[in-house]
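The following record pairs a protein chain with its ligand, DR9.
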Amino acid sequence: TSDPPSSNTAFLSELLLGEPEESQVCSRVVVNLRREQATRGKHDRLNTFSIMCKMADQTLFGLVEWARNCALFKELKVEDQMVLLQSCWSELLVLDHLCRQVAYGRDGSIYLVTGQQIEVSTVLSQAGTMLSSLVSRAQDLVSKLKALHLDRQEFVCLKYLVLFNPDVKSVQDLRQVEHTQERVNRALMNHTQHTHPGHSDKFGQLLLRLPEVRSISLLVEEYLYQRHLLGDLPCNSLLTEMLHAKHT
Ligand code: DR9
């Protein structure tokens, strides 16, 4: 039972409506970072790691806001919304990072949400083992997604599939989560078949990337947790709060 193309297009357009403009995401993060720096004295400037954490924190805020504004997500009980977000926040961050690289990243450099670019070689020369491996794996995935010509519709579907995960323990309204997962999955399948009829396995290829997104996101959490144990994470951040929700 495949949905007719027009209703599929309408459904995907609805999902896309919730997507913020990159320019708005960027300027919000930049404004907040500047504000943060302005409150500090000359000798109290944030180091690179702290700036990156603030950047990630702001990005995470935006992603949580995005989820909470999704009509399909709002239908869920607040408790279910909480457990879903606590379980997938790092995957959403990684997916967001990947998509930004596919859209704007140039080969050999990382495009940050602020619009700044950093050479991958620079990062690899400054980073420790864990961060290096993280960045390398993310770059490999970016190459694969670029080769697949991931479009905005496909990206938003992947975001929904990550968010509406019925495998999350203690979800109460499992049927609703499953229903949305299936609906988005079908929309993604129809979309890839209609827009890339010559690429019969694009749908499968996209889904096969999700386990690697998951695996990278677990590494991100592990990396951040280790820096947290060293006392490096800024307190009062959403990032830290989400990290703790899992370790309690
Ligand atoms: C776009 C989403 C917002 C996220 C913002 C952060 C994006 C992170 C994505 C890629 C990483 C970019 C790294 C920039 C590095 C700047 C120069 C550098 O290499 O600094 C080294 C510094 C310390 O490295 P280390 O922790 O390995 O310690 C080395 C040790 O001292 C010597 O052995 O690294 C940083 O400052 C990195 C900060 C990373 C913050 C991570 C936030 C992660 C959140 C989401 C990431 C999403 C996906 C990332 C996939 C790569």
